[in-house]
Amino acid sequence: MDRKLTDYINAKNGLTREELERVLKKAADLIRTRVDYKYILLLLFLKRLSDEWEKEFEEYVKKLMKEGLDRKTAEQIALQDKKSYTISYPHEYLWRDLREKDVEKLPQTLSEALKKLAELNPNLRGVVDRFDFMEFMLHKDNAEIFKQLFELFSGLDLKNASPDVLGDAYEWILRYFAPQKAKEGEVYTPREVIKLLVEILDPRPGEEVYDPALGSGGMLITSHIHVKEKFGESEAKRLFLYGQEVNPTTYALAEMNMMIHGIKDAKLAVGDTLLRPAFKEGNTFKRFDVVIANPPWNQDGYGEETLKKAEFREKRFEYGSPPNNSADWAWIQHMLASAKDEGRVGIVIDNGALFRGGAEKRIRSKIVKEDLLECVILLPEKLFYNTGAPGAIMVFNKAKPKERKGKVLFINASLEYEKHPEIRKLNRLGEEHIEKIVEAYNEFKDGDGFSKVVSIDEIKENDYNLNVTLYVFPMEKEEEIDVKAEWEELRGINEELRSVDERIEGYLRELGY
User: Fold this and answer.
1) Are 404 and 373 in contact (CB under 8 A)?
2) Number of separate helices (H) and strands (E) present in the chain
């Protein structure tokens, strides 16, 4: 649905993106660094579930009353019929009722609500019950913050809020706290970078999309949005999403993020992808149409000794083991192995993976020789919250079109950025930059100082170095010179110098020189 139309509909329902973001900004200011920002996400999630269940309950009761039942009987039936709701919510913990209970006991009550919610919904086990609001009671000031937070969210009516608006709100929180969490080692992929990668891979209805380094779910959610905008909402339901995340808390956030965006059937798992891929098919690991990820860059601890213990090691790491201090080429190999015979793979990677030597070079050369690599994109610097390094995108295609075989497209997008509107030290990709890069990829553009098609033979001559600047460097724009204006300016300077000389000579004569 068009964003302007969505905003209009939500404004009619009493909620706009701007109003929701204002509340979230106040919530963010309240907690600062005293408690984890994840509790804002959790409160938004709970409030939505409570309001949604209450709306469905009222609609069910009215339906029964139209059939001739009195309200009390209709309510009893509606409460007992658990299967008629989008999600089973413990009605004794409805948000409106919690406001009337002892405020001092709210953290404990909400923690109980999370446990009950997980009991009623198997898909939420290990998700909502992973959190405990009792953390707010560790300090007296935190307890006061929690009361204010609860009241802040109590003022929101989320019954009719669209998943688009709620999803944007969820993403706003993740983005707002990304600079702070980057210092603690958390990785947040800018949504503009994700959009670029999704536009290039172009997932379509009926396909299966897999992110082996899931994070908070941005790659899969953007893939869903891409299909919805391109083919319609009903077709987006035919895009099948899979993801695995090693961090249990981050996995929980991803599950909630999916639900907030209205994506109910994504298959997500928690666990170490490189050692134990979660999705199986028969006696081996599952393969997908599109594999997309921004895995941790230069991840330690996945050298040969560790990967010897990995499931399906021979099939997933057939090109060799990476060095122990960087798992970049372990991730690339796993993603290639996880793609179907005609599958497409896109990865955001550290720029150093393109040209480092040793074990990485040996793996890289084998993959290049097999003609799996389709495109390498050098990104601008300062796009990411946790590093100023530029980063790169690598696109692999197991079914390259005939005209692209034996060739690799290099795109130097290092100058394609605008200043970040909110964070002074950061850059970001603008819409026009994304369009320019995608167009160059789709057209396989060659030789304009922005992109260049290079043969595998030439890459071989360069010792399998994939550093983009080795093949394409941005052409500096030649400045147009107005010769007449320049000459007049120069003549004026010369006349001024002659005048100065004459004055100095006069002073010297007066002094007797």
Assistant:
1) no
2) 19, 13
- Quick one: DSSP state of residue 377? E
Q: Three-state SS for 398?
A: coil
265/251 Cα distance (integer angstroms): 15
Q: Count of CB atoms within 10 A of residue 35's CB?
A: 19
Tens of pLDDT, residues 53-64: 999 999 999 999
Report DSSP state, residue 438.
Answer: H
Task: Give the residue among 408, 415, 334 at the shortest CA–CA distance from 371.
Answer: 408
**Maximum distance among all Cα pairs of the chain, rounded to whole angstroms:** 121
For residue 259, CA distances in Å to 190, 273, 314, 355, 380 come to 21, 23, 36, 40, 33
What amino acid occupies position 334?
H
* Beta strands, E only, 66-214: 208-211
Count Cβ atoms below 10 Å from residue 271 Cβ, excluding itself.
Answer: 13
Rounded to an integer, what distance in angstroms lies between the CA atom of residue 232 and that of residue 487? 61
Tokens of 310: 């990995």
Q: 147, exposed or middle or buried, with CB in 10 Å at 0-12, 13-18, 19+?
A: middle
| DSSP secondary structure letters along 239-276 | -EEEEEES-HHHHHHHHHHHHHTT----EEEES-TTT-
| Alpha-carbon dihedral 310, 332, 325, 181, rounded to 10 degrees | -100
The larger pLDDT score, comparing residue 108 to residue 180, is at 108
Q: What pLDDT score does 6 carry?
A: 39
Query: Residue type at 153?
Result: F
- Nearest residue to 169 via CA among 283, 22, 355, 310: 22
The tokens 């990995």 sit on which residue? 310
Residue with tokens 């019954």: 159
Q: Torsions phi, psi of 341, nearest 5? A: -60, -25
In contact, 402 and 384? CB cutoff 8 Å: no
| Distance from C-alpha of 305 to C-alpha of 355, rounded to nearest angstrom | 24
Question: How far is residue 66 from each of residues 61, 77, 91, 231, 461, measured CA to CA in Å?
Answer: 9, 14, 23, 38, 79
pLDDT tens digit sequence for 89-140: 998 999 988 877 777 788 889 999 999 999 999 989 999 988 888 877 777 7
Distance (Å, whole) CA 22 – CA 481: 50
| Model pTM score | 0.87
469, 449 Cβ separation under 8 angstroms? no
For helices 163-182 and 17-31, give the axis angle rounded to 10 degrees: 30
pLDDT of res. 11: 43
Encode burial over 203-222: b for 16+ CB neighbours within 10 A, e otherwise.
Answer: bbbebbbbbbbbbbbbbbbb
